[in-house]
């Protein structure tokens, strides 16, 4: 049986790095505290008194005695006050007051560690080509996905706890919408959406029946296709509900970032960043991308520009490139969000009436205190897209190399190896080795059941679905903030 070996060493080293180094050199903290982000400080009550022309001279005239106690009403100021907020760079001390900062720091730093482990493991597999080792980087990727889903679930439950407002109704509505959308997508044939889900499920059913027959059980498929798609649609509806507010928030930050951008290059990158999920969605629409590239209309003869394996590799690289672009544009979006404080004050100046100083301070301070919530809504979908793509590459037996002759390898049948091991083992002296070998054979049999064809179809669909949900919600948010909100 293969021993993890080098991969275990890499995992232990990375765990030590996370424990010793990351608390001092954190990418998550650097993204917020590198000096490029500036937040607006709320004015003090004394500053508001001075601006309102009310010097604090003893007790306010609105104070009154009640049962021997002095009851003071909150100070109010005109809404059209000439107020200009002061800005300050985000520092490490400021992050201590941010909501969800530990969750944000853990998700980003653990994602960086998992990505490094994955890269080192891919280099190791490329040069050493082990056959009997477990790829431990898959565990890291699965942990990253679980943490991202957990964070999104926590943020969604926070919206459900709000009594006032329609956040709960929005989440439920989009959840039902994405459930219907997932059921509709799952019945589309492979001629239009080229996931390979039908082929993968058929291969899984056949392999499972053969496995059950070898175990002496009834040769019946463990799950029907309808049941499989039904539970997959429920899971997709949950993902869609979790990605609802991240998409809506992204649309608002995109519009604000466009207003801040002065250079054409920055504006172009912002547009590409917003349309990145759409590009990812189109990569699996067969008539638009694969059929056109594989058989371009060039005169009478149709010469394919690349092989299917090369197209699959380019698709992976393009998704990673778009994820990198989204990470690079994170600062512009977060700064656009922080500018909401001044935007709210400017909007307040256009209104008539008065506002209490406490409400004004809360309105300004609330924007900064929820910075990490917005950062999580921006980063979590990005993390899910990236590591779902990495899982698709590894479990789907794709290649990183762009070669016309590259062909994905199929899983190796270990039955001959297992029989030879059984024949070489002595019957009396190797009982422990026999047990180990039996476990190895059982794992090999399960590997033959869960084939790369199944993982290709399932992970391709999930990657496409995350991008589709993010683009759908952000497109609705763009329409809402541009046409349905009245300034």
From TrEMBL:
InterPro entries: Transmembrane_161A/B. GO terms for cellular component: membrane. It comes from the Eukaryota. The keyword Transmembrane helix applies. The keyword Membrane applies. Keywords: Glycoprotein, Membrane, Transmembrane, Transmembrane helix. The chain crosses the membrane at residues 106-125, 137-157, 169-188, 230-248, 269-289, 367-386, 453-480. It is a multi-pass membrane protein. This is Transmembrane protein 161B. It comes from Aotus nancymaae (Ma's night monkey). The gene is TMEM161B.
